[in-house]
Amino acid sequence: MSPGLKRKAVSLAQIKKEIDHNKTKESVSKDYLDFQLDLIRTQYKNRRKLTKSIVYPKLSADTVKERLKEGFYLVDFPRIKVSRKVLDDTFKDVCSVIEKYDTLESGELERLKAKEASGELPLRDLIENIIAKNKEYFERLSGKLEIKKEALVFIAENLVRPLLILEAQRLQGKIKDDIWLRNYCPICGNEPRMVRLERETGRRILECSLCYTQWVFKILECPFCGNNDQKTLRFFFLENDIPHRVDVCDKCKRYIKTLDERKLEEGKEAILRVEDIATIHLDMLAEREGYKVTQ
Ligand SMILES: [Zn+2]
Ligand SMILES: [Zn+2]
Fold first, then answer.
1. Mean pLDDT of the chain
2. 166 partner at 20 to 30 Å CA-CA among 57, 77, 86, 255?
3. Whole-number Å distance between alpha carbons of 274 and 17
4. CATH code, 177-288
């Protein structure tokens, strides 16, 4: 059996420290790092209220084992009860960040707020559909509300993250690393966003794009399409940024960024979600080469 993964909860203070550290680099703008930090703050801000108000369905150890064995992820969102007030508060917080950094097209934020107030943008539906990866829902809603699909997805992702992070912390201790080698998150079913090659073992560990759960994956396989033909799997890196590399798949034309912990200085522990934010220049490079981060 493979050794279990170290799964430590990351505090806001640790994230802030890591983000501040990255501000010394030229490859990413300070404004972008501040924007991301403020977004992360929204995940932590309502956590206490959320913990009090949320009711998760009970899952016995046997059910967990059975579901994972069959390839079913664990979150059962329709059965999660969460107060409307907490969702509203998180929505307002995310809107304030958008406003502060002016990240949407003119008029779009006002439309978002107005549609939410009128009930045409039901927050619970947004999160149910982001978990279900229901692209058509977002396309339809985008047309109906005249708000870009990307903006709706952004709101949905930032609403659901605090809920999923809490649920992930509750459940991930129950995941045995040798029974989940799939290309989607064992907790929420979403795609990986970052990879790390574990310092001690060289194992390839994926991190979920939504709830930050980590799980072990196969070394020589595309985590999106399952391609394992080594002639069409490559990676590239920048000379001045050795610990990071970009794995690309020429079959599905997608990429994922990897942090090789063995190339970090001794004792340094990186936070993958911060590594992701701080390597946006690699996303730009990959996209310029014709690879995509999402489908
Ligand atoms: Zn997840
Ligand atoms: Zn692929």
1. 91
2. 255
3. 10
4. 3.90.1670.10
271 within 8 A of 15, measured Cβ to Cβ = yes
Token pair in block for residue 128: 């149910």
Please tell me the number of the ligand nearest to residue 207's CA: 1
Q: Stretch 63-80: mean pLDDT, rounded?
A: 87
Q: Which is it for strands 214-217 and 233-238: parallel, antiparallel or unpaired?
A: unpaired
Distance 159 CA to ligand 1 centre (A): 14
| Proximal ligand: closest to the CA of 75 | 1
**13 CB neighbour count, 10 Å cutoff:** 9
The residue among 198, 223, 199, 222 whose CA lies nearest residue 209 is 223
For residue 292, which ligand has an atom nearest its CA?
A: 2
Query: Measured in angstroms, how far is the CA atom of residue 191 from the centroid of ligand 2?
Result: 12
Is the pLDDT reported for residue 53 higher than 50? yes
Long-range contacts of 48-51 (CB under 8 A, 24+ apart): 49/85, 49/86, 49/89, 50/82, 50/86, 50/162, 50/163, 50/166, 51/166
Q: Report the C-alpha gap between 289 and 286 in whole angstroms.
A: 5
At residue 2, the pLDDT reads 57
State the Cα–Cα distance between residues 211 and 184, nearest whole angstrom: 12
* 167, pLDDT greater than 80: yes
- Residue 234: nearest ligand to its CA? 2
**Banded model confidence at residue 177, pLDDT cuts 50, 70, 90:** low
Q: Where are the domains of the chain?
A: 46-174, 177-288
Query: What is this structure's pTM?
Result: 0.93
> Above pLDDT 90, what percent of the chain?
70
Q: What is the DSSP letter of 251?
A: T
Q: From ligand 2's centre to the CA of 217, what distance in Å?
A: 14
